[in-house]
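README, section 4: Worked example with a bound small molecule

Sections 1 through 3 covered apo chains. Here we extend the same pipeline to holo records, where the ligand is supplied as SMILES alongside the sequence. The molecule in this example is zinc ion. Nothing else about the input changes; the structure line simply encodes the ligand pose together with the chain.
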Amino acid sequence: MKCAACHTELVKKKGEIDLRINGKLYIGRNISYEECPSCGEKVLSPEVSQNLYEKIKHGEFAEETLRIPILEGTYV
Ligand SMILES: [Zn+2]
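The generated complex, written as structure tokens:
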């Protein structure tokens, strides 16, 4: 599969990804995905994203408190 943004061949990876679904931030662990080595775009297969959406729908996730670094931008 190729990157939709820059058409580089995607590389298969496994690990942790962050997802924003309906405005809420989720961390996915042990996820198979493909990543663009050029622009960093991450792509989930339809099967994997379907599976994750099902888990969210049924509340099948653990909640952990994370300290997330917030970067404050400045208007230039
Ligand atoms: Zn790309």
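What to look for in the output: DSSP finds one helix and three strands in the chain. The mean pLDDT is 94.

Section 5 describes how to batch many such records.
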